From TrEMBL:
Chloroplast recorded as keyword: yes
PROSITE patterns for the chain: COA_CT_NTER (PS50980)
Pfam families xref list: Carboxyl_trans
Domain CoA carboxyltransferase N-terminal: from-to ranges: 1-118
Organism: Ulva reticulata x Ulva taeniata
Name by which UniProt lists this protein: Acetyl-CoA carboxylase subunit D
Lineage summary: Eukaryota, Viridiplantae, Chlorophyta, core chlorophytes, Ulvophyceae
InterPro entries assigned: AcCoA_carboxyl_beta, Acetyl_CoA_COase_Trfase_b_su, ClpP/crotonase-like_dom_sf, COA_CT_N
Length: 118
């Protein structure tokens, strides 16, 4: 019996309200299944964030990995720069949604180029 890690490669522009509540509900279902996978089955989950990884994926299962890996220069955010600036009436610093900046802030464990995964 071999135990393998669960690996999810995330790439998402986010679930849109236009797609309906069913698309938004899937993020909670995936997060719940991952919790069961990690807690009850004591298995290992690796999240790989590619560009773009935005919206609810970032707010849910994309950031739940036991190890979180981002690709170099990946655009990773909950909301886009324009949405944040219009909502908060503040300027979003250039590069603040780049993998390298977020890695420096402790959001990821590694930055690894895609060709190193093969």
């Amino acid at each position: 019996h071999q135990i393998l890690p669960h690996i999810i490669v995330c790439a998402s522009g986010g679930a849109r309200m236009q797609e309906g509540s069913l698309s938004l509900m899937q993020m909670a279902k995936i997060s719940s299944a991952l919790y069961d996978y990690q807690s009850n089955k004591k298995l290992f989950y690796v999240s790989i964030l590619t560009s773009p990884t935005t919206g609810g994926v970032t707010a849910s299962f994309g950031m739940l990995g036991d190890i979180i890996i981002a690709e170099p220069n990946a655009y990773i955010a909950f909301a886009g720069k324009r949405v944040i600036e219009q909502t908060l009436n503040k300027t979003v610093p250039e590069g603040s949604q780049a993998a390298e900046y977020l890695f420096q802030k402790g959001l990821f464990d590694l930055i690894v180029p895609r060709n190193h995964f093969k």
